[in-house]
Amino acid sequence: MPSGYALKLALGPLDALVGMMRLAREHKYRLLFKMVQRLYQAGRAEGWTGGDSLPARLSWAPHTPTDRAAVLEEVVQAYGAGVISLETAVAMLVEAGYPIKDAAEEVERIRAKAQEEAAARMAEAVARRGDVDEESENEEDPERDAGGGAEPSRSSGGRPVPFGFASASGPKQLAGR
Known about the structure:
Layout: H1 4-10, H2 12-42, H3 68-80, H4 86-96, H5 103-146, E1 166-167, E2 170-171
Antiparallel strand pairs: 1-2
Helix pairs in contact: 3-4, 4-5
């Protein structure tokens, strides 16, 4: 089986021919869509808006086989590098034949999942930081005991204050200074 590049080179003339045939009929397809819309408007189809016809365009699927794995790798690399947006990445996957029914809905699902994962990572980091803080407080206990064994002041936010000089208004001023 030839590689993707060899297949693309071999089917190059076919691509050009199909592209020319589609281009020659593009205007006719637009007129066909406009005519269908006007027939629905004239027949007052239920749920169909009146007024001007909406622009419509025919989107063709690839006529040659696509290497979905190569497209996926390209999308992952381009999106990871920040070269393309998430919407463009999903559109490329749709064009490659991935079974995505609604691209906008898929983008929302991806963003929601990314937010959930970010929140989980943040909670995990906070939990790890709390464990590190507890370990550092346990290491400071001997020093605190040597300084008189005083409990941390409430005004210090739970941080140990040397010699208990903290108050609600800040450090106490020594008399005579």
